[in-house]
Amino acid sequence: MVGFDPRAQGVPLSAQEAALAGSAAGMVTRALISPLDVIKIRFQLQIESLSSAAPVGKYWGVIQAARRIHAEEGLAAFWKGHVPAQLLSICYGAVQFATFERFTKLVHDKTVLDSRTSGVHFLCGGLAACSATVACQPLDTLRTRFAAQGEPKLYRNLAEAVNAMWRSGGMLTFYRGLSPTLIAVFPYAGLQFFFYNVFKRLLASQPAAGKSQENLKNLLCGSGAGMISKTVTYPFDVLKKRLQVGGFEEARVHFGQVRHYRGLVDCVTRMTKEEGMRGFFKGLSPSLLKAALSTGFTFFCYEMFLDVLREFKKDHQR
User: Which end of the chain is more exposed for a tag (fewer CB within 10 A), N or C?
Assistant: First the structure.
């Protein structure tokens, strides 16, 4: 079970080992879901409608977008920004899971609350995600910009991107979109851990026939939790992406209309006026698919790597 459990059997693991398992889970998951992430970001940043009935924009459907990106930019385009994205996943997974394990243990040690309840998991999951977001936001901004640019590339490598962004706006450039990110990440991650806990408890009454079936349960629980939490908080993700590419308009001119937003309120106001409420849900389809796979594989891999670490420590102690 994810989170501190005072009645758990087996060898206890430290926060450092939880961080290691979280990093490994993030790395594996990122490599698998990168193509969906690129398509989702392209959709989120497109000003024009995504409707296939009146295709006025560059992209209007998942299959159409995938074909167009492949035709214009090649197969490697689906892993644009993969280096900062992998660094982001490794860093985020480490901070989030290590902090979550520490917070749930703190609840058990310092309060009368049961650390295994869904409510505690919601609170600790949200706080852990906020900690990870602040630590990893610069990598998220870099990943978004790499995924957003077309051909020819404005940034050819990570060092060039960091240098250009630093010159254009200093450290604050790397934290564009932090406000909507923090507003969204607490309920998003909190709901992930909350529903994962709920689904795991619901399935606990049906004992798994073996380890493979238990792993499948983890995957399904994570997928369901990811889809629910993503749907609830999706508009904030769109706002974050729009703000992260501020000052990056030169790389977006080949994709259609571009906008420069003065901040979160201006972004919300102009999107509502120009694109309507549907604008805040652009890219939801690939995002839900990505959330199901990403969250499912993250929890699946995390619990799997925890089991591997426990077995390694058990063998080492003999």
Answer: C
